[in-house]
Design brief:
By secondary structure, this protein is an alpha+beta fold. The protein contains twelve helices and ten strands. The chain has two domains: 236 residues, 2-Layer Sandwich (Creatine Kinase, Chain A, domain 2); 87 residues, no CATH class. Helix content is 46%, strand content 16%. An eight-stranded antiparallel beta sheet has the order 2-3-4-5-1-8-10-9, with helices on one face. A two-stranded antiparallel sheet has the order 6-7. α2 crosses α11, α8 packs across α9 and α11 crosses α12. The longest helix has 29 residues. 43% of the residues are buried.
Length: 336
């Protein structure tokens, strides 16, 4: 089962833990300077190395329709940047799609693992094993002074980006998140929207990740990220207890209004739907509402109502208004 479909994804402020490694081949230019014939050759070299590892599958993404690539991006399997690339590119992935390798993205290899809830150590261990296995067949671009060489200088060093995805709707609504965001930035980390750099937050979901990969070890980065995330979790839980004590009726009203809207709407925008789903998820965490969710988790619904995934599930929409109708149809059926 894919990680975001598991029911227990909704039982924690932390939705997921991810670790990603950027690696490049020593024998080819970086992807931004890679001619088409070299991109295809590099893809074959990386594919051959990756398929030596059991339980992984290769998908050639070079000629896959954009809508399907965007579906993968909406599920965090590939990046939006990779979905938009036109050169030879591929994906190595396991059955659950929680461990994958993007081939010929910004770097030759982007090795990533995503686990539900607070499982950063498991994600770190998974990418480490995969990195070690690949390095037996591939020679990485590496400098003894600077570490792993990458297309973007901010990834040079360990090449590691570790991140949590958190649902912090109360910190957002009270304005406290802005205060903590400044502290997070000063600590060398970044807090971003739902789909990472350059994206907006929807439904109170944010990503927090390290910005430094040079001069700081992997274990130190993991430890610091855990500490910062735990602080945010504690603050969100504290506000949760406060609203239960001081604003119970107002909170219940917002949650059940969201439930009513999602179970009776006939047309709904993605922004409104995400806000209501956020309220439902909060209500389930607080124990204020019990409702059945087809697909396992509210977060899975949040993923499925994104435009490309929704069209995969419900059929092609001719225009935005029809997409909003399909979204309403989907949500009425998914929540009972």
């Amino acid at each position: 089962m894919k990680w975001y479909k598991q029911p227990d994804v909704d039982n924690s402020v932390i939705i997921s833990s991810r670790v990603r490694l950027a690696r490049n081949l020593a024998s080819y230019p970086f992807p931004s300077k890679l001619p088409a014939y070299d991109a295809a050759a590099a893809l074959e070299d990386m594919k051959a190395a990756a398929l030596k590892i059991p339980e992984f599958t290769f998908a050639d993404l070079s000629h896959v329709p954009t809508s399907q690539l965007n579906q993968l991006a909406e599920c965090h399997v590939i990046s939006p940047a990779m979905a938009n690339k036109s050169t030879a590119k591929g994906l190595i992935y396991n059955e659950d799609e929680n461990i994958s390798i993007m081939l010929n993205e910004e770097d030759h290899l982007r090795i990533q693992a995503i686990f539900p809830q607070q499982n950063l150590d498991a994600a770190y261990e998974a990418v480490g094993r995969l990195d070690d296995a690949l390095s037996e067949s591939l020679e990485y671009a590496f400098d003894t002074e600077f570490g792993f060489l990458t297309s973007c200088p901010t990834n040079t060093g360990t090449g590691m980006r570790a991140s949590y995805m958190l649902h912090v709707p109360l910190l957002e609504s009270t304005g406290n998140l802005k205060i903590y965001a400044d502290l997070i930035t000063k600590a060398g980390f970044a807090i971003r929207g739902t789909h990472g750099e350059g994206s907006e937050s929807m439904g109170g979901i944010y990503q927090i990740s390290n910005q430094m990969t040079l001069g700081k070890g992997e274990e130190e980065t993991i430890s610091s990220l855990k500490h910062l995330a735990n602080q945010l979790v504690e603050k969100e839980l504290s506000v949760q207890q406060h609203v239960l004590k001081e604003f119970l009726h107002e909170t219940e009203d917002a949650i059940f209004r969201a439930y009513g809207a999602l179970t009776h709407c006939r047309k709904i925008s993605i922004t409104e739907a995400m806000k209501h789903l956020s309220d439902i998820r909060l209500g389930r965490i607080l124990g204020l509402i019990k409702c059945e969710i087809k697909g396992g988790s509210v977060y899975n619904l949040m993923t499925n109502i994104l435009p490309n995934n929704l069209q995969r599930i419900m059929g092609l929409a001719q225009d935005l208004r029809h997409l909003e109708v399909l979204r309403a149809d989907y949500l009425r059926d998914a929540i009972t």
